[in-house]
Design goal:
The protein is an alpha+beta fold. The chain has helices spanning about 1-15, 25-40, 55-60, 80-85, 90-95; strands at about 20, 70-75, 100-110, 115-120. A 4-stranded mixed sheet has the order 1-3-4-2, sandwiched between helices.
Length: about 120
């Protein structure tokens, strides 16, 4: 995924290790959260049905300490534009945090908008 490549290039240029992209249940959480964002056209981190990220991880049987999330709603499908938007916002704190080793990113398109959800874990 080009978005992960751009993020890892940014991390490595800052002396941070690259993140590993993960699938499985962590990706399923990201995909569900992106889909809920699209369904409700909302970037609120306390999503209807699933609640907050730690609660949803628990629902999936994931025991993750201190997960972090980023959400973005955009109409620009360019990976460079998405990466830039996330890097130039408060999202960069988790994207560039050296404690995180793993990332999963899901993107859902609805009505001409992209709903991007990133989850970071140790």
């Amino acid at each position: 995924m080009q978005l992960v490549q751009l993020l890892n290039q940014e991390r490595m240029s800052s002396g941070l290790p690259a993140l590993t992209f993960t699938s499985g249940n962590i990706y399923n959480v990201a995909l569900c959260r992106a889909a809920m964002m699209a369904l409700h056209d909302s970037g609120n981190s306390n999503l209807p049905v699933y609640g907050n990220l730690p609660g949803m991880c628990s629902m999936y049987g994931l025991s993750i300490s201190s997960p972090s999330e980023n959400m973005l709603i955009t109409t620009n499908a360019s990976a460079n534009a998405i990466h830039s938007s996330l890097q130039n916002s408060s999202a960069s704190a988790s994207r560039m945090n050296p404690v995180y080793t793993t990332v999963s990113i899901a993107i859902v398109e609805r009505n001409g908008k992209l709903y991007i959800y990133e989850i970071f874990v140790q």
